[in-house]
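hey so i finally got around to running both of the ones u sent me last week. sorry it took forever, my laptop kept dying halfway thru and i had to restart like 3 times lol. anyway pasting them below in the order u listed, first the sequence line then the structure token line for each. didnt double check formatting much so if smth looks off just lmk and ill redo it

first one:
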Amino acid sequence: KGETNGTFQFESNGMQKYLKDLRPDKFEDLIAMNALFRPGPLEYIPDFIARKNGKQKVTYDLAAQEEFLQETYGITVYQEQVMLLSQKLANFTKGDADTLRKAMGKKQKEVLDKMKSKFVEGCKSNGHDPKVCEKIWTDWEAFASYAFNKSHSTCYAFVAFQTAYLKSHYPAEYMSSVLTHNLSNIDKITFFMEECRRMNLPVLGPDVNESVYDFAVNTKGQIRFGLGAIKGVGENAVIALISERKENGPYTSIFDLTRRISSKGVNKKCLESLAQSGAFDCFEGIHRAQYLEGDSKDPMTGIERAIRFGNAISNQQSSMQNSLFGEDTQDHITVPNLADCEPWGAIEKLKKEKEVIGFYISGHPLDDYRFEIKTFCSHSVDQLTDPDKLKNKEVTLAGILTEVNHRMSKMGKPFATFSIEDFTGTIRMALFGEDYSNMKACLMEGSFVYVKAKVQARFNSSDQFEVRPNTMFYLSDVSDKLARSLTLKMPLQKVSKELLNQMTDLLNNSPGNCVVKFNVIDQSQNLGVELPSKRLKVHISTGLIDSLNALNGLECILN
């Protein structure tokens, strides 16, 4: 399937394409692909695949080559093959063969010229056709300067095989390890989080009652975020939290936690970071804002109240173990209430989460626009990181605006710089002159925007290219502006009063500008009829499409 993201050496898009075409069924195929997928040998891959799959005949310039080229379908792939064939065809010594390998690898023309005559003469003495031997030598010269040694490629392929095996048989454990080892690279983490989503592997946020230091797999087979990756939570604090949890069981509340753990070990900053990251979400009935905000009765935050409670317990326990009547002192200290405040909205919650984790973990601000992005965008941000590959092309993308700066040039003209972030990464852009005037209304941090742009040469730098926006509008308007019609395709056999009522309710609750059409198919007769609706127009959204697709037998087609 080519699902090799996260496997050693086999992750690139090109490699995935070739692996799907090759359909490797033995370890030697992996060794060969590892050696071929590099400049020079790359051009041999289509022939290698065609011969492997029986679509092209395996041929040899000389029958004597079969012994060493059979495993690579008649194509010279490795340095070792050149060395062995030179010994067999031209009676080279092992020393001569190694000298040939080095000379080819380093393109030492003088040495090669001397060895060529020796090769041709040796081939003649063994009865081989000199013209064929000349061809073999020419092929070697063109290829061997890039040739890989098989021993090296075998080691690489062995690690690739191990990682692929682990990903296939222990997906959660393997991806947990991949995430842990890429924590210092936010772009990589985002990429592998998407890979986990594709694999239907839930990646859950940190949990003070379940997380360990790194990413780990819980008892349900889900990947749980590690406490050690939260900014502001030090290693000593994580060790203290986990040790106490293992010794005396899970924490029941923020107050139970501060009662059991000293504020010196887990300080205010640490607790605030844990709250922002969602590590206290396991305490039911409490939302994150309550830990970090006060209320009209008491401006003290929930974290501050918890620390004060914990300190009070600690102070009384250190002064006396029991009261005069033998009761636990802590029973006389009332557990305070958390603030009575409004919960954060989804965007605010994710924003604070990103502050302490570095990326979104419980969701993404763009989740509600996945359908629009998939349908109307030609490129994602990660595909635009090298604009030189898209010279003078029009592109469309969407994302959330971050780091928006409205500034003034030395000439007194306004301009703006900003970043657009989508599921795959972030790209920096700028707007000047008339473009700035036309689009500045959208340039607010946190705005969801759809952008049409051209990859063009930078000002005064014709050899450098950038992505320059020429149209920008809110992502919420994209379907009304760009979608012409929505066709609902349904088999005649599935049409029922219940289906029509469900479909009608969904469409009526999403008014907009997109025309709705119905296409009823009679599969038994291979017939279909399209029924346009002049009055019914809807607003296309991820929610609407998901709900329609969930109806039995219905298929949505956007034009």
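and the second one:
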Amino acid sequence: MTNNEIADYFSLLSKLMDIHGEDAFRAKSYSIAAYHIENLPTQASEMDDTTLFGMRGIGQSTGQKIREILQTGKLQQLEEWVAKTPHGVLEMMQIKGLGPKKIALLWKEHQIETVGELEYACQENRLSSIKGFGEKTQNNILEAIQFLNKSKGFHLWAEVYSTASSLVENLRKTHPRHRFDITGDLRSHCETVSQISLLTDLPGETLFQNITKIPNVRIETINEQRSLVRIPNQPLIQVFFTKPSNYYQQLFLTSGSEVFHQAFSEAYTIPDDAISEEAIFQTNQLSFIPPPLRESATVLQRAKTLVPFQLIQPNDIRGIIHSHSTWSDGAASIADMARAAIDKGFEYLVLSDHSQAAYYARGLKPEQIVAQHHEIDVLNNSLAPFKIFKSIEVDILNDGNLDYDDTVLNSLDLVIASVHSNLRMTLEKAMSRILRALENPFTNILGHPTGRLLLSREGYPIDHKELIRACARHNVVLEINAHPRRLDLDWRWVEYALEQGVLLSINPDAHAISGFDDVYFGVMAAQKGGLTKEHNLSSFTLSEFETFLKEQRTKRVSSLS
């Protein structure tokens, strides 16, 4: 279990105590504990008690609760609060913008205790008259409910993939003579998935002998080739069964979109006894199409050229671009972030703390930037040839201006411009705001271009084609934010960006050392868009990256003169 998963227990406990009107100080203490757990430098499961209990913000009491979660998968204190809370109230906690105190008010004073009742109340305009809500809040809640309903039953790729990988690994160990593979949307790297799909040549009755021992498990047999496994608090598992001789045929047929398979079946054949997926493509005189690219019919035209698809790989990332330290809202010092990057084999680190408008994230004042740059200079002298670059994730203000004057911006090696405030914009407002930021000669990278949070918040509306063409005109790099809840720029626009000559950059937006690992999820999403390492900025070597920055500065000087 990861630190983030453990922290969720404490965060939920804090919110439930708030909803039930428990002592505010006690409730807050669990919220603080969640923050410290999320930002532990190492996974709690890998620490001994002495180390864990001695970590900042942990202590004996919190440490013992962490051990309870790791050993039992439960926190008894949380279980007791959950038992006291109606299921509908628990569901209401998923609604963006609806905090514990508002939920308590709706439940206890207005007898609203399900999402459906709340949606009806919004539609009937009943929330607007409740103190602390108003018409704007009511509309926001209604939109959030509608988004939640569309997202129900889906999971982040990153969350489900780790579960599926562990499951397949255990099955292979238990049944070493049989084959097991992840397939379906997971294998295709879809950013959100509704289920885990597995393929095996093991007979179903043998597979289910052990699974039926799991408490409350339900198995639904659809037909000889497919069954559904429902385990409480786990994603739905879909299992495809096949004969050993047809294994790779079925692996191919269960990977990719309907559009892709329809086009393939109309023009090509699938041999029943293929010895590999590669053999299926070779038989049809096509280059092998990796599973993430099996979305459209047009990819088949590219495969006819027999030119191999060269997708970016995790080990192609040479530097960490976009990271935060304790100077703003990060969990680790610059020195610790840099040393961790060195340990992981990276050549450079772009330190991009928040700008002053992001007061909630302790954004840096101009004088703090000067002090931070001094610290970076000292570290660079001791860490060479590794290099830390001076950057800022600067807020794009409401009028499209950047959050510092030209003097401050000119002191930076790299500027990542992002929208963090006033996200509820019309298309016209959003485009006007972002386009003005792209025109600023100091903007090097546009961060998380739509501001979306997968399964939580839709991004603000943008005209992707116009935005990408503007990036091409102004030589601005488009970020693929690798956080598994962002994956923004969406992979569907990678191909168009490449056609327009726009450089992309897979960046982890790391707020802790563990955030470096999010690069993997960004690479998986970028593969689906067809990105190659040559068109990814964070794949540049240190020397290539320095050359890129020199060219950017030259163009900046030229545009300002």
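quick thing i noticed on the 2nd:
The first strand starts at residue 155 and ends at 156.
anyway thats it, ttyl
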